[in-house]
Amino acid sequence: MSLFVTSDTHWGHAKMLSFVDANGGKVRPFASLEEMHEEMVERWNKTVHAKDTVYHLGDVAIPRSGLKMMERLNGRKILMRGNHDIFKLRDYAQYFDDIRGCHFRDGLIFSHIPVHRDCFFSERYKGNVHGHLHGNLVMHDGQKDEHYFNACVEHHNFAPVAYEKVLAYFAEGNGRAQADVQHAQSGAMESRHS
User: Fold this and answer.
1) How far apart are CA 159 and CA 38, in angstroms?
2) Model pTM?
3) Which domain holds residue 17?
4) Distance between CA atoms of residues 107 and 130, nearest Å
């Protein structure tokens, strides 16, 4: 049983195929909505197995009918609602095992929209795993801010990314030293056993 994160699948969102990045390139390289759906379902199911868990960091589907794509995806799914997840809770509850505003794990904050960096510079929080920005990154002083991990499908070959990769990102000098992540993990363990 493994853990994965993903964000901004935008199932059913045909207009997404016309969006371009700052260089004029297509944000999603698919010729049609059907191609996008089939490729993303195939990539998800090659990556995620039935007993795995996926944290979906929001913007699941536009329009509501796109939610039906969730039926085709492997794994137990937990949703952090995004700004486009505007439908009734019951619409999501049939596809997700849990629905949250955000999640805290291993000293990381999981959210749809990136949290302000002042929110997590503490002993308790070391970084932010987020969605919302698609192909863009959080910047600070003209550089990529390494305290953020963008889980959007555009950054991960249109498939969920293994949580081990997220932890490695923060442990290998991206935002925090490995000791800081281990400190956060051991602190979480201690608080559970106190």
Assistant:
1) 12
2) 0.87
3) 3-193
4) 14
